[in-house]
Design brief:
The complex is a heterodimer of chains A (110) and B (507). Chain A has 110 residues and is mostly helical. The radius of gyration of chain A is 13 Å and the shape is globular. Chain A folds into 2 domains: 33 residues, Dissimilatory Siroheme-sulfite Reductase, Chain: A, domain 1 (2-Layer Sandwich), CATH 3.30.1420; 59 residues, Arc Repressor Mutant, subunit A (Orthogonal Bundle), CATH 1.10.10.370. Chain A has 5 helices and 2 strands, in the order E-E-H-H-H-H-H. The model of chain A has no long low-confidence stretch (mean pLDDT 94). Chain A has a two-stranded antiparallel sheet. The two termini of chain A are 24 Å apart. Chain B has 2 domains: 146 residues, Fumarate Reductase Iron-sulfur Protein, Chain B, domain 2; 254 residues, no CATH class. Chain B has a 4-stranded parallel sheet with strand order 2-1-3-4. Chain B is globular. The relative contact order of chain B is 0.13. The chains are: A mainly alpha (110), B mainly alpha (507). At the A-B interface, helix 3 of A face helix 10, helix 11 and helix 20 of B.
Amino acid sequence: MPIEVNGKTIETDEEGYLVNLSDWNEDVALKLAESEGLEMDENRWEVVNFLREYYNEYQIAPAVRVLTKAIGKKLGKEKGNSKYLYELFPYGPAKQACKIAGLPKPTGCV
Amino acid sequence: MADFDTPELKEYLSIPAIEPGAMEGLAPFVAKPPHQEPLGYPGELVDNWEEKAIEKMGDMLKKYRGFQVFLDSCVKCGACTDKCHYFLGTSDPKNMPVARQDLLRSVYRRYFTFAGKFFPKLVGARDMTREVLDEWYSYFHQCSQCRRCSVFCPYGIDTAEISMAAREIMDSIGQGQKYCNEIITKVFSIGNNLGLPEPALRDTLEDLEEEIYEDTGVRVRLPLDEKGADILLITPSADFFAEPHIDGLMGYAKVFHEAGVSWTISSYASEAANFGMFIGSYENSQRIAMRVREAALDLGVKRIVHGECGHAWRVAYSFWNTYAGPWDFLDPNYPVPQHICEFTWDLIQQGKLKFDKSENDHRVVTFHDSCNVARATRMGDKPGGQFEIPRNVIKAVCNNYVEMDPDTIKDATFCCGGGGGLLTDDLMEIRVKGAMPRMQALHDVVEEQGVTNMAAICAICKSQFSKVLPYYKMPMDMIVSVHQLVSDALILTGQNDGDEASGEQDS
């Protein structure tokens, strides 16, 4: 299921995750968010950017707990909880935000 | 986002009128070569797959006597028909256990029985065709191998064995399931289902140590790869990642701390789960189990303790000896392996743990028996220990505990709906529908007894419930880890009085 961004065709897997992580850029993120029915506001960008930073260092998305704490530090303590993250990404911060950030889907019993 | 209807919760659980074909065609993504080949399977459907499938079935009939007995002994009595949560939730008659078995039994009859070879129509025997394969792929991925049906079968026919065999046959001809096989590939290449590399695991554990210190003022460690530790903790990698799993992990760490034992997690065997069982693969199950043995020997531990993971406890309790034994290098004074609930209950009985049960007073808790623990293992040294010990632990840390309908607990427990390799987004419809019987029982105790939380000791159950509870209009964080309850009530030696905590008791 390829997606079209700025005239370029980008390959995604059956579930809409990027096949090549290097294809990612902000326009691709906007397109992926759109297909999830989400509008990228400042807070969502904050999460997506954190995920990408963490992934660059550790080759995996952070644990939900690590993510909530980091977001709490950046956006204020009242936002450092998974409830808030679910408001931003209703299908679950781990999976939906990873997709928009161009990262592979977390697998396993999660 | 759902393009299906969530079943309605009624006053009581009723047997639905059948709707033939209701779930026809629902099937998970097929594994691609990079997730087939590392497991020793062909990358894609082989040319002469019909022949190869029958050949494989023949091999398995010789190797696994139970498989043949189960195929031969069904008398179509119908006792199983209304016992499967997937049938109850979908009304599809092919989700009746006997009908699911017959998808494979009909092919077995055609090629391996006298009557089926010569008079196929008379005995409902079918050729191995593409249609049959598609039907297998669909309906053997609508079985969570929970074995509830086998409890009610007068012959003890175990549909899980048949569904595992069907998956092994399909894998061997190149038609594997993406979810399970991608995960097993990650265990072989990285060490766990999640694909969590050692530096990330270390970072996460340090983060949790920090969190416990902030909460309690006590330095509780979560050690990684420490040679010479007494205990190796084997736990599902979801415990390092997801919620409420991670709260359970912090609970184990606190219990180990209070017990004063030395323990470690291994980055090489950073996974309790063994999805080799779900795909019915002896070889892959064995390879995964061997990683634990290698890690235990390498670290020089004396004991192995299992975290909260349902099917892993079955694999360890029932199959580890065959896969990776003998375990004679471990201390025979302790159970080999030991479940974390056994470990904690033992300490509670010795009076070594101090609790402030009022920390859980905002909760009314019930317990969901996970199918593999309930129907395939035991804990402690008495029959039924696998039911009693987790409940004893909960009751030792919570003042408010109630049971769900007796027809839905202990060995009659209903699967969460996501077990057996079905915990994947592409099977969401069957997951939601199959959760209905458990949701019904839970909803009843919520309404009648004010239950606020359901505790479980399985990573799959916890993730599945977090996902499906909202479909049934219940909050996702109702589901908790048993050791999260332990963690919340446990008073660590030297713990702060807790500036924000509600309790005023001094320790």
